[in-house]
Amino acid sequence: MNSSFKRAEVAMLLPFDFLRLIWSALLSYTIFNETPEITLWIGGIIILSSTCYLAYREMILRKTS
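The chain above was modelled as a monomer; its predicted structure follows.
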């Protein structure tokens, strides 16, 4: 993460850091058989959607510049 902060803006990278939430939920379900609550999935979907939107917006902004 530290080296990626040198190469890109923090606002672009931080949503990708929150994707650890989804991976943690999947691993805990697989390894420990814990069922995640619906609020975790709703939050994960919000984070994933915002990450995709930011990546798309940055791609469009770079093309127009």
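The chain has a mean pLDDT of 82.
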